[in-house]
Records
---
Amino acid sequence: MLNRDLVIIGGGSAGMAAAVKAHELGVKDILILEKNNYLGGILNQCIHNGFGLHEFKEELTGPEFMTRFSDQVNALGIEYRLNSNVINVSNDKVVTYSNKEEGVVEVKAKAIILTAGCYERNAGAIQIAGDRPSGIYTAGQAQLYLNCYGYLVGKKVFILGSGDIGLIMARRMTLEGAKVLGVAELMPYSAGLNRNIVQCLQDFNIPLYLSHTVKEVKGKKHLEKVVIAKVDDHMKFIPGTEMEFDVDTLLLSVGLIPNVDLFNELPLSFSKTRGAKVNQAMETEIPGIFSAGNVLHVHDLVDYVVSEAKEAAIGAKLYLDGKLTHKGHKYDVIPGNGVGYVVPQVVYIDDASDSISFKFRVAHPFKDVNIYIKDGETVLKKIFKPAIIPSEMEIVNIPKANFTRETNTISVYVEEKK
Amino acid sequence: MIRELICITCPRGCHLKVDENLNVTGNFCPRGAAYAKAELTHPVRTLTSTVVIKSNLDNRVPVKSNNPLPKELIAKAMEEINKVRLSAPVHIGDVAIKNIFDTGVDIVVTKNVLE
């Protein structure tokens, strides 16, 4: 059996950022395990720009961003294995992986960071009514085919779901000569960033149908038609609102789910994000096992993935030094009115370094509201928001010294106007 | 008349208001003001795409315009990009098309493909 101080599962942006940060902090005995034949994860197919404005203070494409990190991993001599699939993670931190050269290998880790990313909800997950023709893809699949293999999956396209990948693909397929007939979004607001509505849809006059979803797909062998219809407040179809589109392709951009399969056998509980519950150090309920990036909760920006991965690396370093005691004052973090989720779910205030970052999303859009972060009845932070939407994650840092240690609850909530 | 825009410079997506004298409010940073002025006078966009590459690893290598292009040139630029044929090795920053349509903008490679 191999032994390593730190094993990082997944060599995408989160895994590489965690490795580089841990190395900087003095953890040198690191192994990154990556299932693909390159380091960089999903950024390899995200050829559009807009990455890195926080991390590098410049606007990069996905491949450029991932290369910044893979160059650092290589320059620091951090060990990694490509084409290596992790099969199991045990309670006592034995990681089992396999690849062609080594066969099945066990590594005993002192600490583990899971940075396995997320996966797309697919056609099966949303149970579309109608035929079962070919021509239905997730947006990320179509993106991989087009950007990495040079294969345009269709010429007449409809997109279900207004997630960012779907919006990005609407533009990308239009530029490559496809006709994108529209985007339907079940909710009355977009799931994607506002900037992508502007530069991916409005720039190309692609209509966005809010409160609409696909009612039926038709096609004997290949997709021929999609029928969409409007839904009411209870998500029921409104009769007479049907619209039919002649298409050969339906792209699905209907949500991303943390890829926590490796955690399923472990005695862990999970939060509303579908990622593992973590404390202020991004540590799960098993001491020494950490989680960060899209496997913890789905982020809008890779820059935020990177900063969270660095928090996990700092946590791993503290753990390896015996400084994550789980003693002293403990808070539970509770999402209140109007808040969908908050990460972390637990704070051991005495284990924290100088400040604690709370990441959260609202449950639905609000205008002109105050958001409170409270320690019992003490206001730790009050933020005014002229407009806030679920697709934009908020990050608030609060200095350790500001916590009262008199209560056991941190609440985050939206105060609505009366 | 006040025009309302959403800034696309970064993912923050500020809600901008611009008056007839091109005074911009609602921007978090100076780039928002510059974006609003350009958008209402001569809009530009950074273009990203891929070009064909001969390589043992990939069929396509990603490229971008190293500066924003006038919006009306985007479709024509795609035609030029689709004519390019590269061979590995290529590196980030290698020029695929020099000074496209005399704009002073280059189309450059955004990924290392080494073999």
Note: The mean pLDDT of chain A is 95.
---
Amino acid sequence: MADTPIIVLLVDSNPERAKIVEQGLHGAAVVKQAPSLHGVELLGVIERLQPDAIIIDCESPDRDTIENLQLVARKNPKPIVMFVENGDGALAKEAVRAGVSAYIVDGLSEKRVLPVVEIAIERFRMFDALWRDLEKSKRDLEARKAIERAKGLLMQKRQLSENDAYAAMRTMAMKQKISIKDVADNILSVASLFDE
Amino acid sequence: MRLEKNQLLIGFVPLIDSAPLVAAKEKGFFEKHGLNVELERHQSWSQIRDKLAAGALDAAHMLAPMAPASWLDNAYGGERFVTGLSLNLNGNAITVSEELYRQMVEADPEAMFERPTSARALKKVIANRLKAGQETINIGTVFPFSSHNYAVRYWLGAEGLNPDRDVRMVVAPPPYMVEHLKEGKIDAFCVGEPWNTLAECDSVGRAIVRSAEIWRHMPEKVLGVRQEWADEFPETHVALVASVLEAAAWLDKRRNRLEIAEILSRNDYIGLQTKALLPSLAGIGALANRKSIIEASDYLIFHRYAANFPWRSHALWFLTQMARWGQIVSPVDLHEIAQGAYLPEIYRAAAGRLGVAYPTIDEKPEGAEEHAWMLSEATTPIAMPSSRFVDGFSFNPDAVISYLEGFKRHNLRISLREIADLHS
């Protein structure tokens, strides 16, 4: 019998991440999304779609609802098991660390399930890394802006050259054991007092 | 005492009965026992289970049945959970929507005046609905392996209702329950506090029966750790249990309940107003009928009645209900699981250190006591409460099979013969 495509239901309230995961699973599975359904509604979607696997954010409170499908199994002939059931749990640990949970219909062969779950884990990680990069560059940009403005103020008020103004800030940072960004913030907040 | 580990991360779910953990942190009991603990809030029980199994948490606020359930079928990647401390007894209630309440009163007014309220009126409502070609009712509980699930099922079963056929059992996280009930997505729920109080306050539903009326002094949450963790860090485990035990004793004093309500109202804990948290903590309970306040000073028990002792008979009772409702699908030795998952010796070591009296037996008959009694099998006698089940049945931990045979209503998926063979 030819393998029919695995149908994955993706439940993620974060649209950017859902997009990344969906792209990653392209070709490996048919992906259906249920972005903002909760509880009983979500159960309805699951019963209608009969997915082979459900990929969901580890933090989602809806996970408890999905787990109850085991009890609905008599109505819904497909029992759901956690993919960690067989095996040493290493994959489960990896998934928890990446923030992804997966529920797989019992009877689906491991050979076909693993790639889907692994892709999901990898995509969650990728999103996490992207997110952290984005946050970091935002912070860097803010720091640079503050430092430039503080430097400008010093140059203007103390008649310092650009290099000397920066050196003065660096010395202050080392003496007080704080970052140059913090020194810049201090200078700017003091300056704002005098401006008023 | 040298601890193997003193930095701990403990997970909890925003509920009133996370109070012993919160009090242990905020009132300095962890610190006193040499522990530096961070508490981490979680949205779902699945997340608590997975993080604990993966070693991302040291310990967790846990639904009591989750510990024995982890020993079934290699369920969580082979990670087994154990507990050396019960966090509380009682604290849940069954709340029905205003509409369902009205229908129940109409169907059988007499049954609705009885205390505890039985499912007799509900049975008639369901029969009427099915006769009229309507769907049956949806009942929400918080997790498949929860005292809530077993309490509702017990209550339905006592009136001959089949929870897997006559109603639709769904699971939703506690903070969503009131909203679901309001929107008509569910018709009833069984949940811990403060959510029943909130449904009553918002006139969304009526709390008709407390879990304590289904089984008096029903065990509720435990402090769970991985079995491997317990083996690796025995001294830390005892220190952890001692800190939370001391916090539980602190919570037992009425005058401390207001203080904990204020602490729990903070956003990093439950994040609801103090006035929503106080009724259940103060022992007023949810009000079934707004004209009469239920006397419920025992609504939430944190310490007295040896409430923190991990009775193996509690674990066993939960296992009988897992079997009864088809959650156990292959024969297992229930006693072996109860002995593995519940660790009274850890409790005794911690209690001994604090000078708290502790039971010297591991099991007791459950549901056998109509009135308050004294437990003499203890370092000093301990006052114990009534432990009645709503149908008057009692559970003898030495007679698991005959107990299971006694239920007319069940959905067993294994043969009792096979379990009996394992036990003999």
Note: Chain B has two domains: 7-89+218-272+301-384, 92-214.
---
Amino acid sequence: MEIRRGQRVSITELCQCANTQVLHVVLSISGIQDTVDFACFGLNNQQKLSDDRYMTFYNQPNSPCGAVKLIASALGSSTFLCDVAVLPQTIDRLVFTAALNSTETMHDIHNGYVCFLSANQEVARFSFSGSDFHDEKALMLGELYRKDNTWRFNAIGQGFTGGLAALVMHFGGDVIDALPPPVSRISLEKKVAALAPKLVDLAKKATISLEKHRLSATLAQVGLVLDASGSMYAQYDKGKVQQVIERLLPLAVHFDNDGALDVWAFSNKVLALPPATLRNYADYIASAEYGWRQWGMMGINNEPAVIEQVVKHYQNTTLPILIIFISDGGVSQNTVIKKLLVEAAKLPIFWQFVGIGGRNYGILEKLDTLPGRVVDNCGFFALDDINSISEQDLYERLLSEFPLWLEAAKLKGIIQ
Amino acid sequence: MGISLSKGGNISLSKTDPMLKNIIVGLGWDARPTDGIDFDLDASAFMVKEDGKVRSDSDFIFYNQTKSLCSSVEHTGDNRTGAGDGDDESLVILLDKVPTDIQRIVFTVTIHDAEARKQNFGQVSHAYVRVVNRETDNEVARYDLSEDASIETAMIFGEIYKNNAEWKFKAVGQGYAGGLSALAKQYGINI
């Protein structure tokens, strides 16, 4: 049986058998160079993932009840075994998904299908190809759902440009609807667990701070500016800057609709680096743009140049922006920096300056009381070493002033 | 909440709500909140005679011709009055003013440009049609047709028709391929 996109069909019809409860579902996509991540989400009657354990994928191949199992994975293909009779009543729907991690999109698919096997024989197939899509990076291929005590299948073939994160957010709860905090907590930890299990512990700590500061439902973009002047050499060489990336990434993943941390390095000049993501974070400093030693940095520090570039980068963004600006001091261009930040106060950007292991932070230390601004758009704190405080403390300090700015900026109509 | 009908079911509007004079027919749907091409759905009404055909093109009420000559049927488009909360599109029918030679009024929804956009009703959820007493805001009948909608690009959601002295509502849920033009031709409209 051929199933068309949008079609609904009962599993009895699908398998041409009255009592089918166990289905082999094969998902396959060809034409994509990188790996395709397939998953099966078990959703409740609100179409939400109320229980994380019902996301069945390579890292979690069995649902708690044993009803959904990932039984085979190959390049571009996964097979799930679904015994719908065993599913608890709270699970109403099994959605089969595919997500891409590279720059490729679903438009690049050569061909793909969802097919159903019964007794090792193919009984039904929903085929699709790249021409059905545009720049989606994650798809809901199809869903099995309960209807009047039977199960039916709907061929969906629709998705999100935001990839797996957008998909998880779709199932995890609508952040914009300002649902209670636990929903976004599931999103952050789930996203991190799916892609970067090593950061799960950090994600949990970040979550606590986010909830405490009532930022669970806030959408924002997060940018990181890294001082890469000569005095920072040891910090890079010892891997401390890499640790900064790892510690900050969970915040970016939480706030950001694209789950990425925009990164700039600066010394005499400015280098816009590729965004840090859960995919590439692990050796980011050593590998982004051929690694930090190839960046052509390690000169003197030119803060105004990077501030200007950051402002320019976000000029068309409507979301609030949190910039975390790492500096080891030696700040000399006080007048220019002051002028730029006073002008930037009308923009939806909050600048959180963090001094690390340095001295002579110049104007940065006096930003809180800088006169002539519509709102206080800057914060500053200094640490001897980024690793000298616990992660929890770090998140607390990073997030203490941002919510105050959010409120003030809203009042002034700078953000919505 | 009014009486919930299944596909093919019908009720007497006059008997269910004896006070009924004028009705709002509300139609609604949700497209999945995904990032593909937008869905553009249009509701229309066909006022047809005993033989199932319109008298003239002016009996086809749609976004470009929102009111019948007799004023008995009016497409109010997006609901801005607050009545019939949540409907995507609605039509007001003044039952007493419906011309005597009109036997039934058919309510359809079509997906604009469905062919090119590769869209169909299977990708739309929570589709329904409901009949509301315009004076009391009381919902008289409702038909949720999500499960009856699949690969069609045009659908008859429901119809009201005269049965002797009473008006009845029928949950139709019949789909067609070919969009609005195919549907219009069937009722004798020259598009």
Note: Confidence is low (pLDDT under 50) at residues 173-186 of chain A.
---
Amino acid sequence: MANPTVIWLSSFLLSLILAPLLPGIVNKVKAFFAGRRGPNLFQLYFDLAKLLRKEGVFSATAGGFLQVAPPVSLGCLLLAALLLPHGLVRSPLGFGGDAVLFFYLLGMARFITVLGALDTGSSFEGMGASREMQFSALAEGAIFGVIGFIAVFTGRAGFTMLPADGGGEWWSVHAVSLLLAAAAFFVVLMAENCRVPFDDPETHLELTMIHEAMILDYGGPDLALILYGASLKLWMYAMVLMMLVLPWSICGTWLGMGCTLGGVLLTAVVVGAVESSMARYRFLKVPRMLVGALAVALLGIFFRLVFEGGIQ
Amino acid sequence: MDGVAWGIWGMGAFVAFLFSRSSSIATGTGCVAVCAGALAALAGWGARLTFPPCEVAGFFQLPILVLAVAGAIHSLGYLKGHGEKRAGTYWGFYNITVAAMYGVTLAGSPFQFLVLWELMGLASFALVAFERESKEVMRAAWIYIVACHAGAAFLIAMFFFGGTPTAVFVLGVIGFGLKIGFPLLHVWLPEAHPAAPAPVSALMSGAMIQLGFYGLLTYCTWSLSEYALYGWTLLGLGVIGTFGGMLFALGQTNLKKLLAYSSIENMGVMAIGFGFGFLGSASGNAGMSLFGFAGAFLHLLIHALLKGGLFLGAGSILRAEGTLEMDRMGGLLKRAPFTGWVFAMNAAGLSGLPPFAGFLSEFLIYLAALAGLTAPGHYGVFAMSLAVLIVLALTGGLAASAYVKAVGAVFLGEPRSPEAAEAHEVTASMKWVPGALLILSALLTAGASWVIEYGFPAYCGNTAGREMAVCIAALRYVGVFSGLLILLAAIGLVWRFRLVPRSRRGRVAPTWDCGYRNPSARMEYTGTAFTQPLTDFFAGVLRPRVAEEKPEGDFPRKSSFEEWIEDGGVRFLWQPVFRALAYLAHRIHVLQSGYLHLYILAMVLTLLAMLLWAFLFSAGTEGGF
């Protein structure tokens, strides 16, 4: 049994380094389904290196939010990463209620990004910003449904899936509720990271896009910060998903860390597969999916309490 | 020192009224009196301070004093060139309002309390009606005074006729709820706040409506056996107020109206906090109780600072742009950068986003809800905790949307009207006061754990236990993380704009709108368009009204589309009620025919009826017929 702090720290550092790999994996999987060779697995690393060497361009309309948004939003994401449990190993900086802070930090990153988008006065970016705020407001409900599930499941207010009494069975008893919570969170993951069927990251110049529309005006180092932040966000959501589904017995071991990182990469494969097998929803349907995710999370809580012996 | 403070405020009001011919004397003495009185009161407040102070009133007094001074200084710029002739009236009533508000928190008897409460309502009515030439302002002022007196009527009933704790509480919730703005009792807020001068809105929204909670806590919730009732009532009202308030805020086009609705939301959050406090005590959940009370009391202070800052900011915007209609503004950030950045940060704070102060109190209330989920003793408590968790999360998202809309429509993009294009930065006093409030809220973020540790009223009994340690630790963590976030953001900005070589730092080009150069302001998203997807999604609640002229014929000439949102409470409850009353009054009016013999007949009939009544109902008692 290794020191959990060491495991968490190495996992944290590996996450920061490996995060740009995720979009590469997703794209590779999508290329596979489409019968193409697809871009290099490490394409985002090359892109980031290239962008960091280029010159930034700012809109003449912008009054400051456009310039400030990328560094500040990346700062929010990095700080959130410090709170993230890696697999089941809780962050050494974690405290009661850290999950709330985690998701509010992501909220702050979104707030400043949206203001940056509105700062350009562009109608495309206004549209993207408006949709982003709508979907995220509804996704927030589903996210806190999952946080409520975690609290009910573990009896603790912290960002961890280890039960307060330290023991307990796993899938054999709680399979249904865990699956429901994980399914709800997977829907949120797809929505918050702008994947099909909620958003299409590939249609840069169409009326269907959300996140890509907001960052149309960025180039150079600012775009690098944003792209890296987006990949880190996908990584963190996948990590939370791993926390929900990984077995407790491997917590705090190097095997556990390996499984977590492997699981995150596997999540990217699943995301790619889902994106390849679905069409983007009509925008009117997206809110229903998000409210549906909340309902699924609540159903998970219900199952945990009623059928899996949670009532005290 | 309180006597000194009242003396100063009284003298200030007297001199301001006396010299109302000379605006400079009235302004000078009025403003100095407000500040000096507040300082004296603050000294008195400090002198009363013991450790631990265990006093509810202190939490309500600080916002009054801080916002009185902030509003007074802001008024110097706000009134310049606008209504200076009536400066005497303004400063006179301003001093009286502040004195009455402060007095309410110190009143020793129900009678004193009621007198000061009425004085507070009347004096602030004069301030709301300050711009009396405008018909809309007078309409709002009348709605305000009616709400004030309806509230006072319930309070009189509560103090003198309320027998059982339940009756007292119910009357108190209605009477004080009319001041707080509980759902359905809220209708005066979105009317009076936009009508009043901005410093008055700040004082009213940041400090006065919160006094309703002071009344509830001091006079209506003393029965330990009724804690469950208090908790459930406040939680129910809070959940509806939080969600409904923010939803209606989303649909507003007037900046101060948006802020007024968001005050309803914030009062809802406080009601949830207090509700959890009472419910936790009633159900033996010490964590829920502590987190709830601590969250509510912190929210009290934080809301005062941030909402005060936002209303004062809105005043600055009004002076800079000459309008409060958000869809006619735009691009103010370039013309008034200081005001813009401060407004945006205050807005982010009230959306509950870290690193700003607003996150702290929302965080504690989340902890209260989570405490209800982790220690489920009772299905109802569990379900309520879950409901609050989801509603707070949704409302957080809606609040962020509404405030992004406000900041985006006012400050960002290109100006949408000629007036907006000629806007300018405001005078120093209007510029710095919201900034000072923001700094105070940052200090509060850093010191929140001390506020709770040493300043927390011994309200929920358990102030030393394990939960207190958890609460303080969590607040310290949040404080540290807020600091870290500011540090990280600063590092990022320094890297981006200082360390990146100058050749790559960035050049300026037109907005890239998919190959369309120089997009005009007409192509921008307006605030209304920004929130349209959300208001559409919640159209079932908001019931937007639409006036539409569709393009017709082969060569359509003109078409128009307008959508606006009316207050649900007014539209579906109060308007029908008052219409029914007017109808009834009209019917009774028939009696007033002008014929003397009919009046005499009516009197005789009444006398007969009374005789009959006396005969029938007092027959059995002693001394009867």
Note: The mean pLDDT of chain B is 89.
